[in-house]
Amino acid sequence: MTLLFWASLALVAFAYAGYPLLMALLARVRPRPVHAAAALPMIDVLLVVHNGMRELPAKLDNLLALDYPHDRLRINVACDGCTDGSDRFAAQRDPQRIRVFAFGERRGKSACLGNVVPLLDADIVLFNDVRQRIDPAAARALASVLADPTVGAASGELVLEAGDGYGKGVDAYWRYEKAIRRLESASGSLVGATGALYAARRTLIPAIPGGIVLDDMWIPLGIARAGYRTVFVPEAQAFDRTPANPADEERRKRRTLAGNFQLIHLQPALAIPGAHPLAWRLWGHKWLRLLAPWLLALALLANVALALRGGMLYPLLLALQLSGYAIAVLGRGWPRLATLLPVRLAVAFLSLNTSAMLALADYLRDPEAHLWQTTRLEDVRR
Predict the structure, then answer these.
(1) Alpha helices of the chain — where are they, by DSSP H?
(2) C or N terminus of the chain, fewer CB within 10 Å?
């Protein structure tokens, strides 16, 4: 029980503190700087939307205003079974710079990416989502980094415009996550990109099957397998709002975490150190976090057993564990408490681990829940 307790806590501590410290050490003793250069390659911006008329007009205005030569940047809108006129609006907005791919049946983002990417011919493909606003300088920043011949993909920075309470806790966690990405980039490569804004060399993008939840990991991991890096570019920014309540964030997080289980299911080699160039980093950054809720449960059970044996140490540690969970539960039930930093961090931590546990149940219950059927290129209306 003693070994189980301390081993479980040690693995959780490594996932959330040890791995970032290891990346910081590597970045210091074996740095991998990026050799950026002024470059203006052809860019195909790719945006997938489903019934996006509420946000599409502002998004297209945003993309058309990017600080990049107009004759070197083309916007491609893939309409995923749109029934609200999104395809017609996009086609009429600026026919000289916007190209529309309209799919009659909704199949999901990755199926559209898999169909459209082979039809593009620019040097760089810039991926983004309809909701986030992109800084005008983002395209230039990503292009300059991709001038480094060792870089195959470049991730922008998602800036969360935090609200109050729970939203601030999410923002604090996201700032912690971005710090890890900076260290991974400085020491080698990210294990994934920011889905709201990232770019990749078109010739290195792997085939994208329909049903992939995390294209922003699938593509960088495929590029890493080919021997290239994915780096973090904080000068390329996309802006989004934080969720207003834990339920909204947990729904999003469960889908994302289920996508991690999907990746392991589709490519078991990702979990075998040495079988993929980034396997060790995947364990430190991703896979141990999937195990964290189960390790925390084991630590709590072992702590109860050890506390019953008497002494002072283990009853004290048990009290600390229970107090931490109680603070998180109270903070979730009473949003005013979440205005306190320790409380909102505890709420965000509990939410993350609860989501990881539920995401596994989701995926085991129905592995096809996040897949969409494929279509043929002949079904695309250009």
Answers:
(1) 2-13, 19-29, 56-64, 86-93, 109-116, 138-145, 166-187, 215-225, 246-266, 279-282, 288-307, 313-333, 341-365
(2) C
